[in-house]
Specification:
- It is a single chain.
- By secondary structure, the chain is α/β, with parallel strands linked by helices.
- The chain has 4 domains: 4-143, Response regulator (Rossmann fold, 3-Layer(aba) Sandwich); 148-246, PAS domain (Beta-Lactamase); 251-327; 335-486, Heat Shock Protein 90 (2-Layer Sandwich).
- Helix content is 48%, strand content 24%.
- The protein contains 15 helices and 19 strands.
- The chain has a 5-stranded parallel beta sheet with strand order 2-1-3-6-7, with helices on both faces. A 5-stranded antiparallel beta sheet has the order 9-8-12-11-10, with helices on both faces.
- Helix 3 runs parallel beside helix 4, helix 9 (248-295) packs antiparallel against helix 10 and helix 11 packs parallel to helix 12 (376-391).
């Protein structure tokens, strides 16, 4: 084991001799090697070169003081512990030395072998503890800064204390803005904020707690939170360390698979149900024709009843046909089509209704005419159905925006109408579900099915009394890339 290298910085040689004698009386004196320098300049030079393991610095150093040397050492990132020595006790000097970063403060008249050895041993152990703590903090800081997931540190009241770059990007605020916010503002539903706080108080941690967050631009994000509570070293406050996992895309994928599965199940049920209904319907129809032929009646009331029966038979038959058509997978005639042209065709069909209801249609198309591989008849029908719902939603304005997003063309149709109630939002794609009179409730069902068959996605957001927004994602055609390359 190498001896601990101790440097005494003291301009009084007599004090050095006394200190040396004290070291010689230490029981394990072989564990320490004492050196001496008698001026400020040589002392700071030795510290900067890290020639020693620990320093004993006299408070009086000519025109300088030991505190001057301590300040200079701390400013220069000297890592080794420094113990201040003084000829008499001074509480102000003692306090300033420890606040500045001294490992200890000793009065020369009170120093003995046990005191000096104990002070050095404790100072070196404290140094190792601080080093381990700094290394731990550095590792955490690296993980914190480089994490691709949003990482937020907040206090128990929700005040944001720190946030990493991924978090800044995720929420869309600047760091200064985030540090002024309370984390409760991130939660789309305020009761989720209260529930999260209750879980943290009760358990001290949460894992994969799923909630909806809201970003600066009012975009809703599905998030899974993993967090733990940490009490600071002075036990004065509690901090929550929170990692947010953006699971928005995963949830949309799950919904897409669920919708696809529901469509497949509905198709099987529809075919089976249609056969079961059409067989007795055929018998009813034949019976009506036979009854009319047998009666040869000129009684208007009898003919009226027969016509009512036939009319309702035809209506039921039409409903069955529409239901089957809404669920059957039809072979698509896929061709590259200019998206703007498809939307313009759809707008022509709804223009009269928009004029009648005094709805303003606003278009904002992408600068480059995006190409998509679609069955143009089916896709025009998709846009028509969604636009018709928007126009009929007691809206004053309907906007149609087209833009490019990654490998998709995104069409957003937004209205400022009556919106969709929360209880109805989960049902809007169900066959025959409608809140409007004279509607079969198949428009959005067919639109969703058609978009899924085109390997696209249909999303919507709605707030009752404010309006609705439908987002249609369609894969871009290779023709778009070729067109961009040509230009």
């Amino acid at each position: 084991m190498k001896p601990v290298r101790v440097l005494l910085v003291d301009d009084d040689e007599d004090d050095y001799i006394l200190t040396r004698e004290i070291f010689n009386d230490i029981p394990q004196r072989e564990n320490y090697k004492l050196s001496w320098l008698n001026n400020y300049e040589e002392g700071i030079n030795a510290m900067l070169k890290s020639h020693y393991d620990i320093y004993l610095v006299d408070y009086r150093l000519g025109k300088h003081t030991g505190l001057d040397l301590l300040h200079e050492a701390i400013k220069s990132n000297v890592d080794e512990p420094i113990i201040i020595l003084t000829g008499k006790g001074d509480s102000k000097v003692d306090e300033e030395a420890l606040e500045t970063g001294a490992a200890d403060y000793l009065v020369k008249d009170q120093i003995d072998p046990y005191t000096i050895e104990r002070s050095i041993r404790y100072a070196l152990k404290h140094k190792l503890t601080l080093k381990a703590l700094r290394e731990s903090e550095n590792k955490f800081r690296i993980i914190f800064e480089r994490s691709k997931e949003p990482f937020v540190i907040m206090d128990s009241l929700g005040k944001v204390r720190d946030i990493n770059k991924a978090g800044i990007t995720f929420f869309g605020y600047s760091k200064d803005e985030l540090l002024e916010l309370n984390a409760s503002e991130f939660f789309q539903q305020k009761q989720d904020s209260l529930k999260f706080a209750e879980l943290m108080d009760a358990k001290g941690a949460v894992n994969d707690y799923e909630i909806d967050f809201i970003t600066k631009n009012k975009e809703s994000k599905k998030v899974s939170i993993s967090a733990f509570l940490q009490i600071d070293q002075h036990a004065t406050e509690e901090l929550y360390y929170c990692i947010f996992h953006d699971i928005t895309e995963r949830k949309l994928e799950q919904k897409y698979l669920l919708d696809t599965e529901k469509i497949a199940v509905t198709e099987r049920i529809a075919k089976s149900l249609a056969n079961e209904i059409r067989n007795p319907l055929s018998n009813i129809n034949l019976s009506i024709e036979q009854l009319k032929a047998d009666l040869h009646s000129e009684d208007e009331s009898i003919n009226l009843y027969i016509d009512i029966i036939r009319s309702n038979f035809e209506r039921i038959n039409l409903l069955i046909t529409d239901f089957i058509n809404s669920t059957q997978s039809v072979e698509l005639k896929i061709q590259p089509r200019a998206l703007n042209i498809l939307i313009d065709e759809s707008l022509e069909y709804v223009a009269k209704d928009a004029e009648r209801y005094r709805v303003k249609l606003v278009k904002e198309f992408n600068g480059t005419d995006l190409m998509v591989d679609v069955d143009d008849e089916k896709m025009v029908s998709v846009f028509y159905n969604i636009l018709t719902n928007a126009v009929n939603a007691s809206a004053q304005n309907v906007s149609i925006t087209v833009k490019e997003m990654n490998d998709f063309a995104l069409v957003e149709i937004e209205d400022d109408g009556e919106g969709i109630s929360i209880e109805n939002q989960s049902r809007i794609f169900e066959p025959f579900f409608t809140t409007k009179q004279k509607s079969l409730g198949l428009g959005l069902t067919n639109a969703q099915k058609s978009i899924i068959n085109h390997k696209g996605k249909l999303e919507f957001k709605s707030t009752e009394g404010i309006g609705s927004k439908f987002a249609i994602y369609l894969p871009l055609s290779n023709q778009t890339q070729l067109w961009d390359a040509f230009n």
